[in-house]
Amino acid sequence: MANFLTLLGAGVEAGAEAGQAGGGWLGIIVIYGGFLGLLWFIMIRPQKKRQKAVMDMQSSIKVGDSVLTTGGLFGRVVDVVNNTLIVEFGTNKSVRVPILKDAVASVREPELTIVRETEEIDK
User: Fold this and answer.
1) Across 27-44, average pLDDT
2) DSSP assignment, residue 122?
3) CA separation for the pair 72, 15 (Å, rounded)
4) Residue 94 structural domain
5) 3-state helix, strand and coil shares in percent for the chain, rounded to the nearest 5
6) Strand pairing class (66-69; 104-107)
7) Radius of gyration of the chain from Cα atoms?
């Protein structure tokens, strides 16, 4: 990084000696502008795409969907009121909890199959 800055400084000094006082600064502005553009494409744009996908998922929740909350609980949506969902948790039908749509991490069914790993013992 220090070498890069010394090269830029040498370019500014050479431009000043040649009578181009503002020529070096234009190069620096272009480099910083390119750097900021690259940062936008690498960091900000993908985050906005993920945020839009989450907002679309949360706005498409309807009655009967199985949802996973940000707290890790699975439940079934029984009613939608504005920005609030009434979610039924567990097999007991009387446990209904209102949650915000923002608290839904995904719309999916829980994985309830039991996977048993078998160890092979070398004899």
Assistant:
1) 91
2) P
3) 61
4) 62-107
5) 45, 20, 35
6) antiparallel
7) 28
